[in-house]
Design a protein that fits this description.
- The structure is a homodimer.
- Chain A is built from 13 helices and 10 strands.
- Chain A is α/β, with parallel strands linked by helices.
- The first copy, chain A, folds into 2 domains: about 210 residues, 3-Layer(aba) Sandwich (Rossmann fold), CATH 3.40.50; about 90 residues, Rossmann fold (3-Layer(aba) Sandwich).
- In chain A, the strands form 2 sheets. The first copy, chain A, has a 6-stranded mixed sheet with strand order 1-2-10-7-8-9, sandwiched between helices. A 4-stranded parallel sheet of chain A has the order 5-4-3-6.
- In chain A, helix 1 crosses helix 3 and helix 3 packs across helix 7.
- The longest helix of chain A is centred in the middle third of the chain and has 18 residues.
- Chain A starts with 6 loop residues before the first helix and ends in a 13-residue tail after the last helix.
- The mean pLDDT of chain A is about 95.
- The interface between A and B is medium-sized, with 31 and 31 residues.
Chain lengths: ~325, ~325
């Protein structure tokens, strides 16, 4: 897939979704900056509509369809997570009906929210059934299927996170983000490279589900056979897409993160930033932590916090042991 | 104690601490508003310096001493919690040394933060020992002891929370806050009454440590014999003060909240507001929930969220069972 998105496409997405999605806050922790000796800015997408950056991509895709006079009568999507809520919310925002096919093992909190945003939710016994049903539904010419990442307008929407952050804080030395299907990182790369050739863009995924790292090593898309066992549920995607893979190849570095480290930073970022932090958001922090230790001199970095949607079971797992007794400078 | 604080005293405090403390965000949840049929604004003091409203009172007291040419050479305080951090932070902000006497059972996270703000921390075997030592230290004429609530300038500092909120959102029908020693509620009452005679000001404390409710019923200050067994550690105070009690008597209503309800709203507010919510912050929410059910017509209320400092052990207790499967409208 030959995709040639540029900064101007992200800027167009930004003006398309302005006033519809939130301009999320930039958070910092003076304690963390003192301890690590660098300046770390966090773009807190947990305060985005639906509690995750996914609202941007869904909203931009719908607004782009309308702008191009291709408004469908119906949206469909398949997702167990934040993308389900994002399409439900965005379709509702434009007064267009949406049907979301969710595996019945999806967290109750996410099913509840998807319904509350006004979408019809079809619970399926397996992910495969959800995938089959959405495909069949999308064959109706009045119906548009919004995929979670492998779509240029979804990528442009997600790219507004980094653009918005750097409009606010200025240029940084490096941008860190988590890798699920690669939409957020692709958008971050296009935005950052457009702003400056010198900004490093660095990805991170759970070691337990390192299909993207394997794909980059083998230079071809590798697919996990089943959902990986990781707390970072936003990065459980089985494979990246053909569009996003082309952008992921251009990243400056890529880190594979252990579950213990995901728990450590989820606790610490929750504590320091006083915000709900989903485990997927901890991936970029650990990557930054490792990268910063290799740098000479004081750096300024941007870490994208993906979202804040966590159910009770996951919260319980995160807080079983006390990581707050070991400060980051003691690691 | 005959205290006659007025709105202008809170306004003076506000101008004294502006630029030193944060103007904290107002949060809302459209889902919660839809479910309850009212408009609820949350003033999120978790995003205050040191993660709690206590920074305001400590900062105002020091700034007021300096303004009146009574700058001491040394500050002392006794606290196991947020007040310790507040005095440590505020003294450091004004480049004046501080010593904080803390019981050694204080949460490690709070001891750690108090030290990180530059204070000398003296760990004591009991609360009584901490109280005795701070009293002795304060006998030095160059030393000033900042008490946690029973002090007019502390009260005025805490009153800036409600003032700032209503400057931002306009007048509301009612303001809800938690009751520890009564400083936050006293300040909220003075600010609200000054803005309008019609605003109801309503307090809440844990049923498990209901000394303030008992004091109001008996019209004399009742003292708990030992620290109550409640998750709301900001409301564990053994007794209100003689100054704060005079203001607490003027409250429009007062609620005593069960531990189960504290856990329920701590989970739900964390989930809906995507913020770290300390259990003490849930007290005002349950009071508002009960009060709103008795009202005719749609109301607009302000709930003061006291802070966001929670250790791992408490977090673990909060998330043991899943409250998120029962939505508030089903209660």
């Amino acid at each position: 897939m030959n995709s040639t998105l540029e900064l101007k496409d992200i800027i167009n997405a930004k003006s398309r979704i302005s006033g519809l999605v939130n301009e999320t806050p930039i958070l910092t922790s003076s304690l963390l900056n003192t301890w690590l000796g660098h300046t770390i800015y966090f773009k807190a997408e947990g305060f985005q509509k639906i509690g995750a950056f996914k609202a941007r991509g869904a909203c931009n895709t719908i607004a782009w369809l309308i702008e191009n006079h291709h408004t469908p009568k119906h949206f469909v999507a398949n997702s167990s997570g934040n993308h389900a809520q994002a399409v439900a919310w965005a379709a509702n925002r434009f007064d267009i009906p949406a049907t979301i096919y969710m595996p019945d093992y999806s967290s109750k909190v996410k099913i509840q929210a998807t319904k509350a945003y006004g979408a019809q939710v079809i619970l399926c016994e397996t992910r495969q059934e959800a995938d089959d049903l959405v495909k069949r539904a999308s064959e109706n010419p009045d119906t548009y299927w919004i995929p979670p990442y492998n779509h240029e307008q979804v990528i442009c929407g997600q790219g507004t996170v980094a653009l918005e952050a750097m409009n606010s804080i200025g240029e940084v030395d490096a941008v860190f983000g988590p890798c699920g299907g690669g939409g957020l990182l692709s958008g971050s790369l296009i935005a950052s490279r457009g702003l400056s050739k010198n900004i490093k863009v660095i990805g991170a995924e759970p070691l337990a589900g390192n299909d993207a790292a394997e794909s980059l090593r083998k230079n071809s898309i590798q697919r996990l056979s089943s959902a990986p066992n990781t707390l970072a549920d936003g990065a459980m995607t089985l494979a990246v897409g053909d569009i996003t893979f082309e952008y992921l190849k251009q990243l400056d570095d890529f880190y594979e993160i252990t579950e213990d480290t995901i728990i450590y930073w989820t606790q610490w970022l929750t504590h320091l930033l006083k915000s709900r932090i989903e485990p997927t958001s901890a991936l970029g922090m650990e990557a930054a932590f490792q990268w910063l230790q290799k740098q000479k001199g004081k750096k300024t970095v941007l870490i994208i916090l993906s979202g804040a949607n966590i159910d009770q079971a996951t919260t319980n797992k995160i807080w079983q042991n006390d990581c707050l007794t070991t400060e980051p400078f003691k690691l």
